[in-house]
Amino acid sequence: MVGTGGPVPTFSPWDYVVFAATILGAASIGLFQAIRGRKENNSAEFLLGGRQMTAVPVAMSLTASFMSGITVIGTPSEAYRFGLAFWLFGFSYAIMSAITAELFVPIFYRLGITSAYEYLERRFNRITRLTGTSMYIVQTLQNVYLFIMENFPNCLVTGLDLWGVLVATGAVCIIYCTLGGLKAVIWTDVLQMVIMLAGFVAVIARGAVVQGGLSTIWDDAAKGGRLVAFDFDPDPLKRHTFWNIVIGGSIMWVSIYSINQSQVQRYISCKTLGQAKLALYINMVGLWTTVSLAMFSGLTMYSIYKNCDPLSNGDIGTSDQLLPYLVMDILSPYPGIPGLFVAAAYSGTLSTVSSSINALVAVTVEDFIFPVYKDFTQKQVTWMNMGLSVFFGGVCIGMAGVASAMGSVLQAALSIFGMIGGPLLGLYLLGMFFRTANSTGGLGGLITGLVLTLWVGIGAQLYPPTADKTLPLPLTTVGCNKTLDLNSTTAAPWTSPANLTPDYRPPIADSWYSLSYVYFSLFGMLITLVSGLLLSIITGGCKQAKMNSDLFVRRSDLICFSGCNNSKASDEIEKVATDVHMGVDNKAFMEMDVQKEYATKL
């Protein structure tokens, strides 16, 4: 009986068919884009889609790449265990979209960059650029490791072969990243986004049928305390409150979307600045939709298991196996539908891994190879891009092969983004808003922020916050009725030595190390800004020569000023740049046209 515990069925042949069709569909898009773009085989086409993409597919790709399978698996279990507080990230998505679209995108378009870290060299120096790029590569490889690990719960519950899934992930990503470039990645993301949403809808629809309607699910969630989302306690040590999600969460997501190459590379592929901004705002709606469906899937799960928690009952090993367990429990009578759900989670993995591979190729070529040696023929550059795609795809498979479980993949992934992304975001803001900042202050501030943030983050991993800070909601096993079924399986435990509670807990663990993971980015950003400014002032930042105004945020970059800018002659070049980059094709960001038009006006 559904919701009473015990083993659940494994994959049927039709589930394998649906799952395989997803893999083949993703690979076929890469092959199609490779054939379609064979006459335009150059680096800009491979890395940036020829800078001719439009808002809607880019927006869906932006949503798919970082919501990923972690959202499919981690967010529903978050709602199941902690309630709707995670839904407050919807406010963070709105703030993130506005900041990224109005502050960062115009600068990247104005500079005509391919790598987001090229800005750091123009504003500071080459050492700072290489440091930022290296931090991004480490962050990306760590998260690719986590994103591929999210297949572990699916494999353990459904009976899929783990190594088969890992090799298939790497092989498919290598095929369409190598042959189709960014266009293949973006259009594949569109397909994968649709599959992810369909997976959530299937779970909610079937759950509503099992429970007797959506109103029953909502009532059960209310009785179980799952609908309490707004906690206005200012305590920074509590895992999720209104303040730490809206403030800390906004900064965390800004660091993910505004300076992470995987995302930057997508929106600068748009043909105009207007299209790029629009893509970010459409992406905001996509994030709202995805997280809302994921949270309601978690409430559906609670309604079904309110009297028999599979985790407490020993049916699964970790909370990340909850949703796969639910899928096999309620959808197994419908052959192919469980395969659709696993395909949804798998699609998120493909999306994230493929975008990471493409972005890693871009920063490797732009930040490490081209500055040292530029005399490559177009054919050599093309083969180099393809070869690096194969290399990074192989690295991803290798990392996944040695992976072991790490607890909640959702919090682990967001923690890593915060620990590395926060200090990097602080460095960019330091350069964009403060002309006093110099290369010494920028690099010193970045290192200071990174060291202190890693100290807090690693301490939190070694000494996890106690239950009075994380506030898990109560669950029970009073309704469980275990029965054995020879044709079914119970998931094996999936635990990690890194998350075992140590025998000794130092006093600092209940204060400094208990800081909410959502604040990691904010903490790193503030430390980098403050220490960077102080070091710059001490080392002569106030005496720097006049710098290129293109490197700083302009009033005309913002929506509220773009149509009513009454700048005078001293701002003439700013007006010209704004008029050009807002709506003209972005083949080379029209840098030469801007200069010519300005010269003519003079």
UniProtKB/TrEMBL annotation:
Q: Which GO terms describe its cellular component?
A: extracellular exosome; plasma membrane
Localization per Swiss-Prot or TrEMBL = Cell membrane
InterPro entries recorded for this chain?
Na/Glc_symporter_sf (IPR038377), Na/solute_symporter (IPR001734), Sodium:Solute_Symporter_SSF (IPR051163)
Principal cellular location given in the protein's record: membrane
Q: Which PROSITE patterns match?
A: NA_SOLUT_SYMP_3
Sorted alphabetically, which Pfam families does this protein's record hold?
SSF
| Residues annotated as transmembrane | 16-35, 55-74, 86-109, 130-148, 160-179, 191-209, 241-259, 280-305, 383-403, 409-430, 442-463, 517-538
Keyword tags: Cell membrane, Ion transport, Membrane, Sodium, Sodium transport, Transmembrane, Transmembrane helix, Transport
Q: Extract one GO molecular function annotation from the record.
A: organic acid:sodium symporter activity
Q: Please, one GO biological process term?
A: propanoate transmembrane transport
- NCBIfam families on file: sss (TIGR00813)
Per its record, how is this protein called by name? Solute carrier family 5 member 8, like
Write down the species: Poecilia latipinna (sailfin molly)
